[in-house]
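hey can u run this one w/ magnesium ion bound, need the structure tokens asap thx
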Amino acid sequence: MTDQPLPEGHRSGYVALAGKPNVGKSTLLNSLLQQGVMAVSSKPQTTRRRQIGILTLPQAQVVFLDTPGIHAPRHELGKLMLDEAITALAEADLALAVFDVHAGPDAVDAQVAQALAGNTTTLVALNKIDLADPAALQEHWDAYQALLPEAEMLTVSALRGDNLAELVGRIVSRLPVGPRYYSEGEVTDSFERDIAAELIRAAGMQLLRQEVPHALAVHVDEYQERGEGGAFIGATVFVERESQKGIVIGKGGHMLRDIGTLARKQIEAMSGRKVYLELKVKVLPGWRDDERALHRLGYKAGR
Ligand code: GDP
Ligand code: MG
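ok here u go:
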């Protein structure tokens, strides 16, 4: 990890990707990150893992989150996933909607747009410009713009690389000034672990409100892939005092269960697969002032 000072005005933030299957979200991420870290396929819904892509530039760090939940609600479950994806979107700094410009919008694109409307700032990438018929381009452009009248749009080709530098520039300009959350060279995957820990912590903070202010830390002890069965995550929530342990566990274990449920839903939305989450609570007195403890919890210098 490099600790070189960042340039003034360094920007960072989360960008949630939205778009129906097959529009080229994974291809786009691959091209943006310039390495083959995302699952790409011509079959819809193959993106099941590695949905995080971290783009570290001299001036900015962009953390892309694929939101596989934002697909056509083919059935009730789809609707539920859509709700969760919307929650994920609300927490992002920016939404990047991806549409296929060589075809006009269909009902699913309209649904994606509807999910985005009024939520986060949205930037639209009209992908597959290499396939687009110039005669139909204006009409398709207008039809997509009508779905998201406020959004800024640009055409790209994830496959050929057209306009991607411009896209990155526009993304970065919309992120808030902020630090690097991840060290250079860290691109994806192992960060699911970190992000899972962060989501668990955030769920705890949200549900506990002021009761245990800032006294929560989370360590992911186990993160196991279980094939089609999803992933098993075992994590420990650390508090500073015995009294706080009682609050986190709650009456009859209710609070810990609620934290687990909320965190699990968010981790599932983030990773696009089922997650089985097991939480424990431990007292680690004064962990906030203890450098070794902080290191063990994965807190890095400057964070
Ligand atoms: P996702 O489901 O949105 O993640 O879509 P994928 O990234 O898996 O891409 C679906 C298909 O579209 C793949 O066959 C890609 O090669 C293809 N594709 C993606 N972007 C482009 C593009 O800009 N131009 C062309 N011609 N094909 C693309
Ligand atoms: Mg994909």
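The pocket of guanosine-5'-diphosphate (ligand 1) is lined by residues 19, 21-27, 40-42, 44, 47, 127-128, 130-131, 157-159 (CB under 6 Å). anyway lmk if its weird
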